[in-house]
Amino acid sequence: MILTELADRQEGPRRRISMDLVWEDSPHPRETLYFAADGEAADLMRPSADAFAIACLPLAVGTGERRLRVEDTLCTRLRSGLRLVNQVFHEWYPRCSLVALEATGGFAPTRPPERRRVASLLSGGVDGLMTLRRNRLDYPLDHPESIRACITLFGVNKFDVTDGRPVPERLDAFAALLGRLGELAREEHFRLLPVRTNVRSLAPSYAYWTAMGFGAGHSAVAQLFQGHFDKVLFASNGDGPNPPPGAAHPVFNPHFSTDAVRIQGEQDEMRRSEKLELLTRWELARRLMQPCHYVRIPEGGRINCGRCEKCVRDMLTLIGLGRLRNVSAFAEDDLTPDRLFRIPLNNRRKAALLLQSIPGLRQAGRRDLAWAIRARVALFHLLRT
Fold first, then answer.
1. Does residue 238 have a pLDDT over 70?
2. In contact, 24 and 88? CB cutoff 8 Å
């Protein structure tokens, strides 16, 4: 794979930074990966081949390319990091190739800004909200480790972009999300930096994205803010201290770093139930949390659909904590066992996460829901054999 033609263009009010992907060993047409923003986010972004190398490494190794050639300069630290990431993917998934990493402009150290500034990735979900909440509890606003800005991405949901173009109804939902996060930004004193990308639409499959692409796709955008932020926080997904192989595994975070911008994982030790317990003590999170998969945009102005696997799993955890009735972000106050048999359950990780709700539900006296979870997971394993 060759990454070529790093471009920085102004398209009306929007700034668009892009690179072209030329496949060498795979039967794919030339494609363009882009990141775009307007307003303050556009002013702060800088063209960086490092960002595109991070996003595209999993694509190159996952499709059997022999090399990743970047027609620009790459950070010296990132060279070592991407090589390690490549080796980990090859160990986990032997079908992945070991690629030669090349940079026509050579490898050179990048430089952090003179002033320390921290940002975080924020989607409005449980993990990002927990990163912000714990940061605010741990650090005063004038501390160098205090979050100054949150980066919010459009284009990392599989339904956001079709045929290279944003889907209008998804853009409307994103605008509504930015409205809610704007309220949060005012209350918690940070700048909100929305960025659009088509990185998810380049993923060959959902399985690839969850196994290899997710972490790199999110981490890449941080490197577009070289010269302004020296660190970007990326929350864990709540699998706990010993997560299974996957694209968001905490082993990757430091290795997507450059000398200019470090990627730091957050709450790697915490399970999702612990995060939800703490967030339900925070009024803003009770109103604004949006863990929904958004397979379909919720109707009637709802924040969460209450029907997808992720919604149901979080609602079960909140029932076990005795907190669902207090979380207005969910329209319903309870679940019935039959709901468990109407959710899609398509991989072992989701099945394992669902089982984590059982102890809390038993303690809350909801053995009906605990039984339904066990039956649903048993059915999942039966259908896979």
1. no
2. no
